[in-house]
Amino acid sequence: MQRLISEDGKPLSSGQTKSEDERITYLENHPAEFRRITQRRKDDEARMPELLREIPNIFLFTNLGSEGDYTRIVFQPILRFMRRAIKIAWFTQWQVC
Q1: What is the pLDDT of residue 26?
Q2: Which residue of 36, 50, 54, 70 is surrounded by the most CB atoms within 10 Å?
Q3: Band of pLDDT at residue 47, cut at 50, 70 and 90
């Protein structure tokens, strides 16, 4: 079982803590749902290495330069690879700073 204890390095608010407590109580009372979620997480983790290997083949990355400690990178999908079995959300262009 996993429990969320913070977001962005900050402790959860009282409302978030209550929601997390309710989620855990629900999973304790619904073991089939807990098993389903756990299996889905394991399946996702098993597919992650394949996804990471494919990223350079699916996206075109362009380095826009650095500003201090940050490097600005723009990436967009390479259209000929968009029909691969790996399902990736597609937007026209992403920018990571």
Answers
A1: 96
A2: 54
A3: confident
